[in-house]
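Reviewers of the previous submission asked for a worked example of the structure-prediction workflow described in the proposal, so we include one complete record here. The input consisted solely of the amino acid sequence. No template or homolog information was supplied to the procedure at any stage.
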Amino acid sequence: MDILQNYLSSDQNTINPLPSQFLESESHYGIGSFSNLSERLHASLDLQRIVQVFADEVAKYVQICGVRIQTEAVTVQTERFVEGIFEHITELHINQKSVAILTYASYREFEHQDLKLLQGLQHKLTMPVFNGLQYYLLQQQTVKDHLTQLGNRAGFDEQFDLAIARTHRDGQPLTLLVIDLDNFKRANDSFGHDMGDEVLKTFAKILRRCIRRSDLAFRFGGDEFAVLLNNAEEDIAMRVAARVQALVSQNALMHQCQVSASIGSATWQLDETSKQLFRRADNALYHAKDCGKNQLKCA
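From that input alone, the workflow returned the following structure tokens.
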């Protein structure tokens, strides 16, 4: 490690170029010996923690402003990830099969010695990411609605409390939509449960089209749904809700089954608990139903 410290510029908090003899002598200085990185990466199954530990280690040797991992199931990035002017994108593989897309962001162009060092370090990341991803997918089975692939009630309870805590800490707005499918029971009875399932899956797809990547959608059960709109005031919630209702009205299956959507909306107020916020949104939903269905009402 001493050879690395000689190339750290403490006054500018930057890293000078590493000498080629260091990069070409892994067996002597050992990328494998970099501050027990493998052990620390394998110590957790939490993808966020794994990525952060790896990025912290990389940042000791290469000037980066963030690391991001993308899979089909989840995207994880370092805290305060900043899109850099320059990016280096590569893949993590196991047995020639892709595990994840790995992106390094930086404010300066990556040099050859940077890329060689990254290549040596990132092979330590592959198996911890693979293990963390399997753990994540296993967790998702317990908090996901299998019919619609949205979150379920358990997932909602967990994410709702986290969203309230984050909103209270950061002061960013949070809006909750509570949604009920009008006439769903009648459609289910008239057209059968298979058709009812298709209605639910179709509505789930509509929700996904209408929300942002930062938002979360859930199915409580039956024909009840909820959406957490992160960093969203009432005006954004109204636009999302209006788009949901418009797409429902335009969908052939929903039209055939005469199903529409009533929506109640509530935006978090200072020191409000999750139960209080949900109660206001739920009351707004009942008001929407009482006003003739296919309505949006804000608390």
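The two ends are 59 Å apart (CA to CA). We consider this example representative of the routine output the project will generate in years two and three.
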